[in-house]
Task: structure prediction
Amino acid sequence: MNGAYPLVEMKGISKEYPTGSAGIPAGSCVRVLDTLDFSLNSGECAAIIGPSGCGKSTFLNILGTLDTPTSGSYRFKDRDTSGLSANELAALRNRDIGFVFQLHHLLPQCTALENVLVPALVSAHADEARARAEDLLDRVGLAHRIDARPGQLSGGERQRVAVVRALINRPALLLADEPTGSLNQEGADLLADLLLELHRQEGMAVVIVTHAPAIAERFGRVLELSDGRLAGRG
Ligand code: ADP
Ligand code: MG
Result:
């Protein structure tokens, strides 16, 4: 791709959960990620698959700098993330990374439009955010629902609002952790269509975690998380 640059470079990433944390017997520790390597260029897509409990969310949270590895190096846009303060990481996340989770995490008392604008409150583009929010909501078929609250929306509509919220600040990287997990087959297919269409239009890199191999394959590069590492599939 023209003008692509290395967005994510992870080398030797390990993550261990220490003794005494949830479900781990005293005196032992669990190594969820084990010297994992992962690279992604700007504008690329990757899908992560693997059985429940294999560490997909742990990996995605480290990718999104919501969590830190026990060891290994993670460079984002050629910056060593281990050298950044909590405030610098928060700014990086807000500017460069959008998140969509299995459950939408929308604010119940806010309208669709207000929810979408939350990440823009602290962004440099706050002035243009409202126009972009309305445009994106229109593009995901929700122009007529901008004043609806999450409780008035279907599961698929709520996830579409969550996707728009994730994209409001024009992130370089969109992370989606089982975004179709709460939807039926048709809703899941429609959400995957939407993510791919927005990827083509907006050009952001996308990493999606999914249980569904058919959805994963649509994102081109499929990686399986197994024994703490990622390996390419066919
Ligand atoms: P997945 O998303 O693939 O289902 P997770 O990344 O959520 O897997 O979890 C991987 C493993 O790490 C699981 O065995 C889980 O119990 C464990 N784990 C996740 N988070 C923590 C934590 N905060 N403390 C202790 N163990 C954890
Ligand atoms: Mg998970």
